[in-house]
Amino acid sequence: MAVPKQKISKARKNKRRSHHALTSPNVIECPECKEPKQSHRACPSCGHYNGRQVISVEG
Amino acid sequence: MRHQKTGRQLGRNSSHRKAMFRNMVVSLLDHESIKTTDAKAKELRKYAERLITLAKKGDLSARRRARVMVNDKDVLNKLFDTLAARYKDRPGGYTRIVKLGLRPGDNAPLSVIQLVQEEMASSKKTTAKKAVKPLVKKQEAVEVKADGDDVAQEEASTDSEAGVAVEATTTEATEKEGAAAVQGPDDEAELAKEDK
To answer: Which of B30, B117, B125, B136 to pair with A23, CA 20 to 30 A apart?
Structure first.
C-alpha cells in the first residue's frame, strides 16, 4: 500500500493551507426595510431589489 | 477544447436539457415570473428572448417555429397576442433576472427570472431616477466608511453609474457642492467626471 514516507511538518502543512481562507459575503443594509441583506441580491426580508418588489415574502 | 461551445450542460444530456427548457420556457411565458437556479435562469433567458422575438414577427411561419418550443396552445396564443404587442417597442431584453440567495438543502444559488412589465417610456424614467440616486448612496457610504472594502466597491459602482448619467450632471452639480463638503470620495468622483 502506498504510504507517505515523511511526516508533513507543521510549516509545510500551514503553507499549503495559506490559501484556504474563506471570505465573508458582502452584507449591506436593505434600502427598503433596513434589514441586512447581501449586495446584488433581492432582500430576503422584504423581497425588494433595486426599488422593485421582486418576490413576495409571506410575513 | 471548449472553443466556440456556448451554453451550459447542466449535468444533463441534450434531450433532457431540451425537454427541461421547453417546460421552463412555457412556465415562464405563462406565469411571467419563475424561480429557479442562477445557471438555469441565465440559460432560459436565451430561449425566452428568442421566442418573443419570433412572436414579434407574427407571421404563420414564425408561429410554426415557435410551436416547436411552446407545446401549449394557450401559451402560444398569449405569446403571439399579448406578449408580442407588449414588447413591440422594446429591442430585446424582455427578461430580468434577480438573484435571491442560496437554497437551503443544496446551497444552490437561486434567482427569479421574470418578463419585464414596464413600458419603454417608464424605463426612461427609471434611468433618470438612477442619475439622482448615486448621490444619496454616496453620502450613506461615507457615513459607514468603517466597513472598508465593501463600501469602496459600492462607491466604485455608483461612480460608474454617475458617469453614465452625464445629462443629469447639471442638476447634480448643485447638489454635489453640499455633498463634497462631507468627505473626500466625492472629490474623486468629481475629478473623474471632469476628465470625461
So the answer is: B136
